[in-house]
Write a structure and sequence with these properties.
About 65% of the residues lie in helices and about 10% in strands. By secondary structure, it is mainly α. It is elongated.
Length: about 130
């Protein structure tokens, strides 16, 4: 069963600039959205239904993509609950995830710096207009 409080907490945290993570901004795919999500929450594990709800993807899409992410060493099954619910997380020892994490954090930093510059310019323009 999915914990609704956990979903609301993580979903609100997942809402970022334009509601897209760095990988999704670049590759515009559901797999990129899931990878962004797993990178941001790399110390936690999630069921397919939790991933679907928190990334606002359909359960069918998540079910189709998780095997791809596993075969590419991006995701890993961390544990199984009650013998059937698989809990996924970011593959902890994969070179692929190391590189993806570096890309995500570098891109997020650049986006944040750009947003700060835009706010500074807007603030200066407001002062000039006064």
């Amino acid at each position: 069963m999915v914990n609704d409080n956990r979903i609301e907490e993580v979903s609100s945290e997942y809402q970022r600039h334009d509601e897209m993570g760095p990988l999704e901004r670049c590759f515009h795919s559901a797999a990129a959205r899931i990878a962004d999500f797993l990178i941001i929450h790399k110390s936690s594990d999630f069921s397919e239904s939790e991933i679907a709800q928190m990334t606002e993807l359909s359960a069918k899409t998540v079910n189709r993509i998780m095997p791809q992410l596993i075969s590419n060493n991006i995701a890993q099954i961390k544990r199984t609950i009650s013998g059937r619910t698989k809990m996924y997380w970011l593959h902890p020892r994969s070179k692929a995830t190391e590189h993806l994490e570096a890309f995500v954090y570098e891109t997020a930093s650049m986006l944040a710096e750009e947003k700060i510059r835009q706010e500074e310019i807007r603030s200066l323009n407001l002062k000039i207009d006064e």
